[in-house]
Design a protein that fits this description.
By secondary structure, the protein is mostly helical. The protein has one domain (4-134): Alpha-Beta Complex (Sufe protein. Chain: A), CATH 3.90.1010. The protein has 8 helices and 2 strands, in the order H-H-E-E-H-H-H-H-H-H. The chain has helices at 4-11, 16-28, 72-83, 90-95, 98-102, 107-110, 113-116, 119-134, and strands at residues 51-57, 63-69. It has a two-stranded antiparallel sheet with strand order 1-2. Helix 2 packs across helix 3 (72-83). It is globular, with a radius of gyration of 14 Å. The relative contact order is 0.17. The mean pLDDT is 91.
Length: 140
C-alpha cells in the first residue's frame, strides 16, 4: 500500500480527470469485502453513496479495515482514508489527525460536495471503532 505522501506526490501533478482516475484506481486496490459484512452495522452514515467499513484485529493488536462502496470514486476516497490508519494500533489511530493527513489532497476543492460530505463520517466511524478497541469494549 502506498503512503499518503507518495500518493500526494502523484496526485499534485495530475489534472482533475486524472485525479478522479487515481482515486478510482486506488479504490480497486482495496481487499474484497465479503457481502455478509456489508450490513447496517458497518454502513457509514451520511454518505451520498453506500460505504461500509469493517474492522479486523491482527495478532499484534493492530486494526485492519475492510471497506467497500457502491460508487467508484467514493471507494477511492475510503481507500485514501484507510491509508492513514491501516494496520495501526487503536491508540495510534486515535492519536492521528486523519483530516489533517488528508488535507494536502484538498478533496473539497477537487470533488463535488456530494462526494466529500461523507468523509468526516468515515473518519468518525473509524475513530469510534478504534476507541472501542482501545477501551476493550466489544463492537455493538
Amino acid at each position: 500500500m502506498p503512503t499518503l505522501a507518495d500518493l500526494h506526490d502523484d496526485y499534485s501533478f495530475l489534472d482533475a480527470d486524472d485525479r478522479y482516475r487515481l482515486l478510482i484506481d486506488l479504490g480497486r486496490t482495496l481487499e474484497p469485502m465479503p457481502g455478509p459484512l456489508k450490513t447496517d452495522a458497518t454502513l457509514v452514515r451520511g454518505c451520498s453513496a453506500s460505504v461500509w467499513v469493517y474492522p479486523t484485529v491482527r495478532d499484534d493488536g493492530a486494526l485492519h479495515f475492510l471497506a467497500d462502496s457502491n460508487a467508484a470514486i467514493t471507494k477511492g476516497i475510503i481507500a485514501l482514508v484507510l491509508i492513514a490508519v491501516q494496520d495501526r494500533g487503536p491508540a495510534d489511530i486515535l492519536a492521528t489527525d486523519i483530516g489533517a493527513a488528508l488535507a494536502p489532497f484538498d478533496l473539497k476543492a477537487q470533488l463535488s460536495s456530494n462526494r466529500t460530505q461523507g468523509i468526516p463520517n468515515m473518519i468518525a466511524l473509524i475513530r469510534a471503532i478504534a476507541a472501542r478497541f482501545a477501551s476493550d469494549r466489544p463492537l455493538d
